[in-house]
Design goal:
The chain is an alpha+beta fold. Helix content is 35%, strand content 30%. The longest helix has 21 residues, at 266-286.
């Protein structure tokens, strides 16, 4: 799994939050070698507030957790559109192992069962494999929680599992029941995977599930707004990181307090020290002369009687050391995600999704970072932003715009010429139209002024 390449090809949302239907896809096509880009791929999503940008980030985070084998988040009911009973996410992957190449689709459907309760109603994995040509993509494993008897299809695979070992019938039903009780994926359930490995002749499906599980745990990073919110509160500095050492990969998040020293164990200290060392190589090129230092005050015993290290994160500039909390929000945002961006830049199989990448970051610097990634990187980056500078930097195919049409939320601009300035074209399209969908729910300056005046008069009367 470690040496496999996994690339997201396409994401489709249906009835997910305020997106009745929305599709984004990378232009690269593995079926067409002339149109396949093995290097950096970027998608930036732009649009007015509340138009579906964060919905896509939430969907990516949801898929990551499902493939990791986690239970449904407690707020999953909020992911289903208020006027719908079900919502679905469909995601296409390109997978390349040492032996084979696959095109894989994973689709998951959520269903409201009571006001605030949700269940996974359906899961489907389909794949095609590259032989001399690509085979047809057909459903290879389907799970339907609403079908008590035939919850796993195709029937041929279910029969194959039962015939291999009579105890498998009990085991698979127990695994299905536990998946329902714990609100977890059936397909990405560890117990189910063990049964499939022992019973199925179709070893390709096992390889695909294992590869996607590894991808979600080690190579797929989703950085939501909550990440930046914690930084804005000057409460914690969350480090999103990925480190690779010989056969071991460490990835995830570690948080360091911003209101004075923090306490970490030896393993956390080792990881943060390595992340800081790695990060400083790039950081002082992005922000001249700036370095980060993890100051170690020594060992202490915590209230549970365990030995910990007392540490503090410092910024170092011109031999002046200051707690990192006194740096700007933009610098703290860069520091918190830089390790994953470095990993994505150097690894084809890493995808980083960042909500509001521009938060607090100087627009010229944002453009420079994205330009460097686009021209020299290897992995995939999906981001949302309000800052329009990237529209002048990135290839037009890298940019999606949200629309006012809930049934067609994400579009690329049509009829864009090579000499067009996409930023100017976007602003002109908001004001004058010209695209296949409306981009902006129009506001009226006179109405806004009147509303401000009326609100002021109302407050004076309180």
């Amino acid at each position: 799994m470690k040496n496999s390449i996994v690339r997201i090809q396409r994401i489709e949302l249906e009835n997910f939050k305020n997106v009745l239907n929305g599709i984004i896809e990378f232009k690269s096509n593995p079926k067409n070698e002339e149109n396949y880009n093995p290097n950096a791929e970027i998608i930036g999503i732009y649009g007015q507030n509340g138009s579906g940008k964060t919905a896509l980030v939430n969907a990516c985070d949801f898929i990551k957790k499902i493939m990791e084998g986690c239970s449904l988040p407690k707020d999953t009911a909020n992911y289903i559109n208020v006027f719908s009973k079900t919502a679905s996410i469909s995601i296409d992957f390109y997978i390349q192992t040492n032996k084979n190449k696959y095109l894989v689709n994973y689709t998951i459907e959520l269903e409201k069962i009571r006001e605030n309760n949700v269940k996974i109603s359906k899961e489907v994995i389909s794949y095609s494999i590259k032989k001399e040509k690509w085979t047809n993509k057909v459903p290879s494993l389907c799970y339907d929680s609403n079908n008590i008897e035939d919850f796993l299809t195709p029937k041929s695979k279910f029969n194959e599992i039962i015939l291999q070992d009579k105890e498998n019938l009990v085991n698979i039903k127990v695994a299905q029941k536990l998946a329902v009780e714990k609100n977890k994926s059936f397909i990405f359930n560890e117990d189910v995977k063990e049964i499939l490995k022992k019973s199925l002749k179709d070893k390709e499906i096992i390889t695909i599930i294992d590869t996607l599980t590894y991808f979600s745990r080690c190579n797929f990073f989703v950085i939501k707004n909550e990440h930046s919110g914690i930084i804005s509160l000057d409460y914690l500095m969350p480090f999103s990181f990925r480190l690779e050492e010989s056969e071991r990969i460490a990835s995830g998040d570690i948080a360091i307090g911003l209101n004075g020293p923090s306490y970490v164990d030896e393993s956390e200290y080792s990881i943060i020290t390595k992340v800081v060392t790695q990060m400083n190589i790039v950081l002082n090129k992005i922000v001249p002369d700036l370095k980060v230092e993890l100051h170690n005050y020594g060992k202490e015993i915590n209230e549970k009687g365990k030995e910990t290290l007392k540490v503090e994160l410092l910024s170092v500039k011109e031999d002046i050391n200051l707690p990192i909390k006194y740096e700007s929000e933009g610098i703290k945002k860069i520091i918190s995600i830089l390790s994953t961006l470095i990993a994505m830049y150097n690894n084809k199989s890493i995808c980083v999704v960042v909500d509001e990448l521009d938060s607090g970051i100087y627009e010229f610097l944002l453009g420079e970072i994205l330009s460097v990634i686009e021209k020299g990187g290897k992995g995939q980056l999906i981001f949302t932003s309000h800052n329009l500078r990237p529209l002048e930097i990135l290839n037009k195919d890298a940019i999606y715009f949200t629309t006012t049409n809930l049934k067609n939320r994400y579009i690329r601009f049509s009829n864009v010429k090579n000499n067009n300035n996409l930023r100017s074209l976007y602003i002109r399209s908001i004001n004058l139209g010209g695209q296949k969908e409306e981009l902006y729910n129009e506001t009226d300056n006179d109405e806004i002024r009147r509303a401000f005046r009326l609100a002021g008069e109302r407050s004076n009367g309180l």
